[in-house]
Design a protein that fits this description.
By secondary structure, the chain is α+β, with helices and mostly antiparallel strands. The chain has one domain: 3-Layer(aba) Sandwich (Protein Transport Mog1p, Chain A). The protein contains 2 helices and 9 strands, in the order βββββαββββα. A hairpin with a 3-residue loop joins strand 3 (about 25-30) and strand 4. The mean pLDDT is about 90.
Length: about 150
Amino acid sequence: MKSGLTPEQTVGWQGVSLQVPPDWSVTGFQGDAREGYLRIDSPGSLVAEVRWAQARKAVDIRKRLDAYLHLVERQAKKRKVTFTGRVKPSEERAGALEFHYRADRKVWGFIQQCPQCRRVVIAQVSGDADDPVVNVAHQLLHSLQDHSE
């Protein structure tokens, strides 16, 4: 898949939405407005995933992200797959953290807490080693909305 995507359709669940190409499909969703999950697959090996949880107050998103990445790392160790990852402040989203890691798949994403609705969102795109994960993630996740307007 080329990295020059043409996001043309909006997909969403419980107020969380993003723009994806017309040939991508929702393959999983669960939960409600308080806590949930949405998965959208490309016809190839790329996958976009969004997880969210409502918080009553401000959350330490670094701790939340560290817990998530620790879980991913443990799963990789169980499968005897090497895990490497990195976290940095987002240049595009105020107050967000970007992360990327490699285990059995290459992943790029971010975590943020919306100052309006206080929903904590982890969004990521994953793919095989030769997939343009970073470019696709930037294009798709840039359109992410974490609540209905």
